[in-house]
Amino acid sequence: MKSSVIVFPGSNCDRDIAVALEKMQFKNQMVWHKETTLPKSDLIVIPGGFSYGDYLRSGAIAGKSLIIEEVIKAANSGCFILGICNGFQILTETGLLKGTLLRNKNLKFINRDVNIKVINNSSKFTSKYKLGQVLKINIAHNEGNYFTDDKHLKELKRENLIAFKYCDEKGKISEDSNPNGAIENIAGILNAKKNILGMMPHPERMIDKLVSNTDGLNLFSSLLN
What is the mean pLDDT of residues 36-56? Predict the structure, then answer.
């Protein structure tokens, strides 16, 4: 399976995701944001970081970059798109995913491991997880507070487009287990066609039990499957 990772000025998780993809035997290429063509790809990843230093707002400038036009074309043709953290923010800026990422409820940067619950395991991104499985995944963001309007929230629920929710270690979803104030504890969503996943937690940081755990591996093995 062929993958491409888009790199912006300020990306700082692009190498992490490349390591994860290559560990899972993806044939990966790094693509600079000024490129105007994409390599043939089954998966495109927009990685975490602080593209353009988060000027204006997170993902705003990156969402207008040259390569994004090609990412949008690929997404519309059915290519799998994964946006992690800043990548999720960029996807909402482009309109490929609905909603927005606001400042964390405590107005502080958060960097810690949290628990998330698998809400949808029928997508191409999550099929290797068990429904309701609790994962421990790292978050590192200042604007991770997902928000959307009531109409879209109802659509997310009705069409089973919520991929992950923040929870406690036992899987309980509550305000106490919500690190950033995201509406209904949402940590990751899919688009209507389910070929695009945006998520704030970093699965690429959880691929080696020597440095963290392996809870992120099944996201990549799901895609390979």
Answer: 92
Q: How far apart are CA 104 and CA 40, in angstroms?
A: 37
Residue the block writes with tokens 């036009």: 69
Q: What pTM was computed for the model?
A: 0.96
Active site (annotated) includes residue 204: yes
Tokens of 150: 């009531």
CATH of the domain at 54: 3.40.50.880
Residue 78: pLDDT band (50, 70, 90) is very high
Catalytic residue among 70, 93, 143, 204: 204
Residues 6+ positions from 55 with CB-CB distance below 8 Å: 61
pLDDT of residue 79: 98
Q: Please determine, for residue 103, whether its predicted confidence score (pLDDT) is greater than 80.
A: yes
Q: Provide the pLDDT for residue 64.
A: 87
Q: Which two tokens stand for residue 43?
A: 């998966």
Q: What is the rounded CA–CA span in Å between residue 191 and residue 159?
A: 10
Indicate which residue of 13, 79, 85, 167 is catalytic. Answer: 85
Residue range(s) defining the domain that contains residue 211: 2-224
- Number of domains the chain contains: 1
